Predict the structure.
Amino acid sequence: MKQKQWIGMGAAAAALLLGQLLPAMGPFSQAGIRTLGMLVAFLIMLITEALPVVVTSLLFSALMPVLGVTENLAGGLAGYSQPIVFFTLASFGIAAAISAVPLSRRILRGLLRAFGKNTERAILAMMVCEALVSSVVSNVPTCAIFMAIALSFARLYTDEAERRRTLRALMIAVPVASMIGGMMTPAGSSVNLMAISLLEDLTGQTIPFVLWMCAGIPLAAVMIPLAWFLIVKIYRPVPVDEARIRGFAEELGVPDRMDAKERKVVWLMAGMMILWVASSWIPSINVMVVAILGCCVLFLPGVEILDIRTFLKENSWDAFFLVGTVLSISGALIDNGVSAAISGLLPAMEVSTPVLLAATAVLVFAALLINPVATSMLPILAAPLVSIAQTAGVPAALVLMTAALCAGNCYLLPLDTVTLITYGKGYYSMTDMARSTVFLQMAMVLLCALWLPVVGRFFGMG
């Protein structure tokens, strides 16, 4: 076992012990202190990779009743009953279906033919294509799909130094484009759906699919070109001539015509999108239910796009168990009064909608430096943010949307599930990413403050 792992386990054990020994303090009950200790220990284990993610997740679910965070094991596993956990499974199934046909490569080939005149434009084409796919498929599997495409593109370089320099730009562009694309619809990220679920639990309100699209698509339309500009100017990928890029586009192996299997995937995705949009007016249509049923259709006789072995192999069980345990800990934070205590500590603010949305964005990005796992950070902040929004007379839906959109752009450091996919390839350092992404997060603060109030007024949230 590496020294880093031993240090991680030791620090996590210390956090757990501290949570057990500390008494109640101010608004935080003893159960709340224990829960905070559990959260800190869990994050330490994840960041230091002390144990495999699946093992860490199961371990902490089992420790919750042992350490008095929940009454029993059912409480420690409560997060696994949340729809978002199974939406995660369905997302990977849909991603596997898209990977099984040339659909994403067909879109990429078209973009490369139109924009692939040089390396910089080729990177833009890849980022646009990835953002489009990520708008309907969770950003984790989308990132994995396009990382493979980016690595294939790098084979155009014969010089190892040039290849690594270009791959540094590509390996940063891939997770960034995936996260930005995930803003476009609620289905693009589990963080989006988590925000909607939290809003429903806390206020009884919801965020219609169309409202989210009207907010997220323009944001992505601005952020993708901005991200591309920053990445190519800061990391400077090595130029490749147009002929070699066009050769790469043809080597993607895309047939001129869609076969029956690819058409089935297109029709299925189109049907799911229609139902997702319809859910804005038909409350009985649930976004997560549509995704799960859509995934099941892939296995039906006559469709047979996926088989169970492929589904089980392509799924990210790390993501499944991580989300389940994060939701269990988040539920304990609410049940043990931690969220309410934080709400009481935050000052009441009577400010305009743009100012509160900007403050929310800054708070979320600051919180991500402490807790880089977006799915665990959002539930902690949700209740306090809703309380502040209600005090200020600002629509809580816009505040939680801002929190989710910013939490989904957690790429200042490569510690999130999405960024870790490419960081693990070793082409950029821990601090390389921040050289470009810090400006993207500044842009998100400004864009959320200016654009979301406009969308809110259009939908009667003024």
